Amino acid sequence: MKNIDSNGHVRGTSVYLDDIPVIQGTLFGLVFDAPMAHGSIEAVDYSKAEALPGVVRIFTANDIPGENQIGGIVPDEPLFAEGDIHFQGQPIALIVAESEHIAAKARKLIDIRIVEKPVITDPREAQAKGQLIIPPRTFRLGDPAAQWAKCAHVFEGRADSNGQEHLYIETQGAYAVPMENGHIKIHSSTQGPTAVQRTAARVLGVPMHKIEVDVTRLGGGFGGKEDQATPWGVMAALAAGQLKRPVKIALHRLDDMRMTGKRHPYSSDYRIGLSTDGKILAYEVTFYQNAGAAADLSPAVMERTLFHCTNAYFIPHVTATAYSCRTNLPPNTAFRGFGGPQGMFAIEAALAHAAREMGIPKHLLQQKNLLTEGAEFPYGQIAEGVEIGKIWQTLEAKFSIEKTEKAVAAFNNANAQVKKGLPCSPFASAFHLQKHL
Amino acid sequence: MLEFMLNDRVVRTSKPSGSLLLDFIRYDQRLTGTKIGCREGDCGACTVLMGSLVDGRLQYHSATSCLTPVGNAAGKHIVTVEGLNMDQLSPVQQAIVEEGGTQCGFCTVGFVLSLTGFCLQADQMANYPAAIAAIDGNICRCTGYKSLERAAARLTDALAARPNGDAIAWLVANQFLPEYFQQVPDQLRAMQPAPASANGKPRVSGGTDLYVQQHDTLVEQEVTLLFDRPALKGITVEDGICTLGAQTTVADMLHSEALQTMFPRLSEHLKLVSSTPIRAISTLGGNFVNASPIGDMTAFFIALNAQLHIDGPNGARRIFLKNLYHGYKTLDLAPDELITAVSFAVPPANSRFNFEKVSKRTHLDIASVNTAILIFMDGNAIAEVHLSAGGIGPVPTFLEKTCAWLQGKELIAETVRSAAEILQTEISPISDVRGAAAYKRLLLRQLFYAHFITLFPETINLDLLR
Amino acid sequence: MNQARALVHIYSDGSIGVSTGAVEMGQGVNTKMLQVAARVFDVQPQRVKLETTNTTRVANTSPSAASATADLNGKALGKACTALLERLRTCAAAHFQVDATAISIRQEQVFKNGTATGMHWEQLVDMAFLERVCLTENGHYATPVIRFDKGIEKGHPFAYHVYGLALITVAVDCIRGTYAVESVKIVHDFGKSMNPIVDRGQIEGGLVQGIGWMTMEEVRYDPDGRLASGTLSTYKIPDIYSVPAEVVIEPLDTPGNDMAIFKSKAVGEPPLMYGLGAYFAIQQAVAAFNPEYPFRFDAPFTPEKVLMTLYPDAADLEQLAIASASLENRINP
After folding, report:
1. Are C168 and A423 in contact (CB < 8 Å)?
2. Is the pLDDT of residue B306 over 50?
3. Which of A143, A294, A389, B65 counts the most CB atoms within 10 A of its CB?
4. Is B449's Cβ below 8 Å from some Cβ in C?
């Protein structure tokens, strides 16, 4: 059956946040954010912005009746910065005006004085300075330290994978409408309606039943609207509740990109030991997760990296350690794969390294070490219903890795200006884990 | 008062001519099928079709409404998805649905418009590569490109039945378009001619870069519109000189038979320049005046040793394009002067031309480095060279020393290698988001090699240059 | 987490409204939810409407994440629909004076011991309403089995695993340092796919996002922490020309898992991992041109990194320029 939304999508009648008919009297919110990555706010002068005709009010931390706190796992992230700023793009205030255009003009009229502090963007530097979101965690299976001497080959190296911007084509946004008796209805472009509701209640200092969150659909999320859709919903609710007028926030693309976190960049050190015939005997890996300035979902993402650190392979001896490192970047967050791909990148890098040094095709190493039924993962779970062996055979039968490899080699011999490369990319990905513990 | 057709009816607005078509469509007219994704022409979610009468025939092109001043809609037919919807899905809509080409749906309408634009193209363009080219400005993050490719293939097949000639009648008969399209030419003819443009101060051509840089101020004022001035349009060849009006778009170049003959690989070259909806509205004059160090068309025309025709209060004058730039964004052009045209000598038979560009993403991206070359041969000797490059200094650069050194040299690999060393002495790239300085140096060397490998494959290849 | 709820109304005219905690964001979860309801009731899909996700109808939702949305909400919805179906069957059984086990509903028709009774879905619902049967039901589902002890970092945190394998061919232009993914051949473990069209979209989309992450998508911050890639003109994601020319997906029909809805398998996140191959494919191609290239693992493999790796002599170019610049300074002080 076709996607039930597809007719509306091709006719342009599907409703997204910015398509909801606006109620008369609706105001528009625009976020004033930190112009630099780290420092103390000495003074902010809103007077010129407030004086601009059409500006209704500017909300700051002082206007919050409840808690100035939006952290989901760890309470370490204010809705509006107070005192210190920790990343460029950190919200400091919400300008509410008759139009978005006026709010944008007002934003340029705000004077802010900040005493700059040293900026850390590198997770290894953060770790060295003890800047961790949570204590490090280590998964262990067997005893790698006892294996290195027995390994015919041991390779060490570093594998870095960068962040990734979600770039949902619909930017973040929310539309809050005050109802009777202090009830506020928030239309939100969120993957987590309850997170918006819970956090709005906390910030506004009201019970959760006063906040209703409604989501029709999202113009893409990919994890970027799991936790990070929350601040805009909360800000809109805060303003709507106090002004008794509907308030809409639809982030401009540039604001969205600057203010929101992305996939976590990781820097990792690996050490891999193999037998003469290419069996992986031991694997040690240390992950430095670039969490950004606040926890957001980083602890859960880090856990997922550890879960997937051996990908679809069985390795009898494993030590995997992960550090969630606090840096002066926007808090990084969920993104399709949730830390798993970063863990897999490291083991795939280690295998590519080993294959090169040993002078054998990587896919032979991969195939030799595939997970089998009953094997133990480093986190103690016993593998059941393992399909990767069957999948490998199916791929070999349908597409022949060896034949493709020969064709690529022949092409490369014949062509000086274009070269081809061919790798296999296997994975085992797991579902229904406990997170947000 | 601006007047134009929006879908099936005539609309009038007193909004400033510099305000954006996108905002007018979405917020004044509440046609919310057209989406806002980036407001800088890079996602295609706001794509609309713009139709106008060209030699009495209705012609459409796609455009990003986020960069289009509402003034440039005057006298035209603007089509949004609401103007395409019929009781049944159109074959374009149907193909996307059937192939599962829509996931979150936010980009979908842009694809519908672009593919409908493809269906409206001239007969010779009804092929699969053209269908894909039509959606080269639409970003789908979910990302359903493979399904959209399949939808494009279906449409290409369907269009095979379209007879040559009146595309619109056939498209209406086959329910690609609603009935009212048949009446559009008459309605456009009956419309008030567009005002000669207000006396607003900022001059706007296509707006594709201006609205990225100066959005906040432009949208609230009357602007001087240049885009549709007939005197600034047109491509002519006379006495061996090719002259293009300053408001010629990149798409106009692409469709010019004269230019296609002069530059057989023109479509390959221009495919590297932005995207279909942007090429349809971005102008040569705008590109030159914008003075971006990596302006693609600037590099292209510097290598053609092109001249600019400039009009001003003190009369007309001409300068070589390569001399327009004094420094970063400073021009040999007074504020009250206007570039009216660009002209160049038609390259003779003994010459070869090439354009190279590399960016992080090959298409719809800004160059890390671009370069063009026009080279005249005398047997196996290089008679004359015009070489340009962008991204390697504060302005688009004519590489004078390299050109001078190459003159008279024999075309062998050694010559190319030595010239590439001289090249390094007349560039000064900086490190930025488009690449480190060292990369840009290397890249220009490689693209310089690419010129020769491409133009003289019988003599020069990569092995000889390594 | 690991729990979900659904609220189902059968209206007195036989139409059905479904609310769950799932958020539709293009992954097709609403389509799958509709399929669940239509399948359990065995009614036409048009009878079912998916409502917005609203905290007053479904409270305490898990975020739509971790590829588990269809599983969790589908299970909860299945339970609610099953409970309603049981009530309807009981009602019909009373009417036909048989045991409820003798009643079935197939394609909107009521059957008694396998024989059509002539009673239609709409009549059944109308009758149930008049009989004051509750036509609204909540379903609640919590994933069983899973546990994890953080103290020892051991446990059984996952309900099941999904497997896949991709064979990727990349061609690198060794003059310019650009590249194209030519072909991706995938064998993917779908379990019993609930919706092949939706699931194919997830595979192709995840793959392309993964390729983007490994190739052109470069998040850049200046050393002072300012975002340097903060626009669509500086941060590039795949366009239609950057997708692999050929993508072949061979579905591996596996027994599936009871933890997933209708023995399907989660399909949202896994395909992103196929994209990892793009990095290593480019690396192999580069090594074919420059055998001296010392493998480095620093994704994304942008055209810039490719070219610098193809030609490690790039640093000399700068030296050359500096030398000649100083030479010029001496000539023209």
Report:
1. yes
2. yes
3. B65
4. yes
Q: What is the pLDDT of residue C255?
A: 84
Q: Which residues of C touch B139 (CB under 8 A)?
A: 232, 237, 239
pLDDT at B360 over 70: yes
Asked whether residue C330 is assigned to any structural domain, the reply reads: no
Residues of C labelled as active-site residues: 269
Top-level class of domain B2-84+180-224:
alpha beta
Domain hosting C28: range is 3-147
Inspect the interface and report whether the beta carbons of B141 and A222 lie closer than 8 Å.
yes
| pLDDT at A238 (0 to 100) | 98
CATH code, domain carrying A296: 3.30.365.10
In the complex, which subunits touch A with 3 or more CB pairs below 8 angstroms?
B, C
CA B227 – CA B288 distance, rounded (Å): 15
* A212, β-bridge pairs: A185
Residues C138 and C174 in one domain: no
Q: How many CA atoms lie within 13 A of C90 on its CB side?
A: 12
Nearest CA-CA distance, residue C91 and chain B, Å: 40
Domain count, chain C: 2
Nearest-neighbour CA in chain C from B42: distance (Å): 6
Residue of C200, C216, C236 with shortest CB distance to B100:
C200
**Given the DSSP bridges, would you call strands A55-59 and A91-97 parallel, antiparallel or unpaired?**
antiparallel
What's the whole-number mean pLDDT along residues B440-453? 98
The alpha carbon of residue B145 is apart from the nearest alpha carbon of chain C, in Å, by 6
Percentage of residues in chain B with pLDDT exceeding 70?
A: 98
Domain coverage including residue A355: 123-165+262-414
Closest residue of C to A122, CA-based? C223
Does the distance separating the beta carbons of B135 and C324 come in below 8 Å?
no
Number of domains in chain A: 1
The C-alpha atoms of residue A239 and residue B76 are separated, in whole angstroms, by 42
Q: Is residue C205 part of a domain?
A: yes
Quickly name the fold that domain B91-177 has.
DNA polymerase; domain 1 (1.10.150)
Exposure letters B180-198 (e unless 16+ CB within 10 A, then b) = ebbebbeebeebeebeebb
Which burial class, exposed, middle or buried, applies to B28 when counting CB atoms under 10 A from its CB (0-12, 13-18, 19+)? middle
ipTM for this model: 0.96
Does C285 fall in a domain?
yes
Buried b / exposed e over B254-266, threshold 16 CB at 10 Å, is: bbbeebeebbeeb
User: Under CATH, which number does the domain B225-345 receive?
Assistant: 3.30.465.10
Q: What pLDDT score was predicted for residue B197?
A: 56
> Which residue of C232, C239, C272 is the best one to mutate when testing the B interface, meaning the one whose CB has the most B CBs within 10 A?
C239
- Cβ–Cβ < 8 Å for A36, A115: no
- Residue C250 sits in a domain of what CATH number? 3.30.365.10
Tens digit of pLDDT for each residue in C319-332? 877 776 665 554 44
Nearest to C150 among A192, A197, A437 (CB): A437
Residue A256 belongs to a domain: no
Contacts of C321 in chain B (CB under 8 A): 424-425, 427, 441
Per-residue pLDDT band at A261 (split at 50, 70, 90):
very high
| Beta-strand relationship, B224-225 and B203-204 | parallel
Q: A14 and chain B: CB distance < 8 Å anywhere?
A: yes
Fold of B351-465: Enolase-like; domain 1 (3.30.390)
Q: C140 and C256 share a domain? A: no
pLDDT digits (tens, 9 = 90+) for C151-199: 999 999 999 999 999 999 999 999 999 999 999 999 999 999 999 999 9
- Interface A-C, measured as beta-carbon pairs within 8 A, has a size of 396
- Please state the length of chain B: 466
